[in-house]
Design brief:
70 residues; alpha+beta; two-stranded parallel sheet; 14% strand; Nucleotide_cyclase; GGDEF_dom
């Protein structure tokens, strides 16, 4: 999963050229949760992914984190 997430971060972090010609940078932070390790229902998975996302944001952004096992 780590390799795929690194490639996804790299692809999503590329500068974007607007129709006006202005280039803007984008930063990406991703929280990951998987069934059944992190929950069985939608709300539980979203909660776990959200916790992982905020872990990334508190620790420097521009990265990904996988939720802790519930």
């Amino acid at each position: 999963m780590s390799q795929v997430m690194q490639e996804l971060l790299a692809a999503l972090s590329q500068p974007i050229r607007l129709s006006t010609g202005v280039e803007v940078g984008v930063s990406v932070s991703i929280g990951v949760a998987c069934q059944p390790t992190h929950g069985f229902d939608g709300p539980g998975l979203v909660r776990a992914a959200d916790e992982a996302l905020y872990h990334v944001k508190r620790n420097g952004k521009q990265a990904f984190a996988v939720a802790l096992a519930s």
